[in-house]
């Protein structure tokens, strides 16, 4: 089912993304829904303004920030950008619910909120999905519950007070 660009923009506007986050989401939309994998940063900036996602965007800064983003690489044509192939599954996991093409096997954030670890180290994102999947669907692939709880408490403590030790 194809979603209109306006309804997709409405969905991502509720996520509170940055300029680059909106541009990456729009790149994903055009790659998945429209079959246009390469876009110019100027076009993305114009779209963000026209869809009322952001005010006027500095095109040069957006292009530089997109190329510095881990999900984006240079396109084949001069001055275009495209999504990195390795990032597409993670972005599809994040945005497919907005387009209405959500996978029925999606893992929900019951134990650890995935938003806390988005755009951090990929192994942390994968670990959070694995921990939530263990509690939701019973992934029995060696991840023990006590390891998950230790991970969660260590992350909470390190985020809240820096060097505070986790209490048992």
What key attributes describe this structure?
168 residues; mainly alpha; Arc Repressor Mutant, subunit A; 7 helices; 2 strands; 54% helix; disordered C terminus
Please provide a written account of the structure:
By secondary structure, this protein is mainly α. The chain has two domains: 5-88, Arc Repressor Mutant, subunit A; 107-161, no CATH class. The chain is built from seven helices and two strands; from the N terminus they run H-H-H-H-E-E-H-H-H. The protein has helices at residues 5-13, 19-34, 41-50, 59-68, 88-99, 122-137, 145-161, and strands at residues 72-74, 81-83. It has a two-stranded antiparallel ribbon with strand order 1-2. Helix 1 packs antiparallel against helix 2 and helix 2 (19-34) packs across helix 3 (41-50). The chain starts with a helix and ends in a 7-residue tail after the last helix.
How are the secondary structure elements laid out?
Layout: H1 5-13, H2 19-34, H3 41-50, H4 59-68, E1 72-74, E2 81-83, H5 88-99, H6 122-137, H7 145-161
Antiparallel strand pairs: 1-2
Helix pairs in contact: 1-2, 2-3
């Amino acid at each position: 089912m194809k979603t209109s660009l306006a309804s997709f923009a409405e969905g991502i506007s509720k996520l509170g993304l940055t300029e680059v986050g909106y541009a990456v989401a729009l790149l994903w939309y055009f790659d998945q829904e429209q079959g246009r994998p390469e876009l110019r940063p100027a076009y993305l900036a114009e779209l963000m303004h026209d869809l009322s996602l952001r005010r006027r965007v500095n095109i040069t800064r957006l292009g530089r920030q997109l190329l510095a983003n881990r999900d984006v690489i240079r396109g084949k044509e001069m001055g275009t950008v495209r999504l990195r192939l390795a990032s597409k599954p993670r972005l599809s996991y994040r945005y497919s619910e907005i387009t209405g093409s959500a996978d029925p096997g999606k893992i929900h954030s019951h134990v650890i909120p995935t938003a806390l670890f988005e755009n951090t180290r990929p192994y942390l994102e994968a670990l959070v999905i694995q921990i939530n999947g263990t509690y939701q669907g019973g992934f029995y692939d060696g991840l023990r519950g006590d390891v998950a709880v230790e991970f969660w408490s260590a992350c909470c403590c390190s985020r809240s007070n820096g060097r505070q030790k986790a209490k048992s």
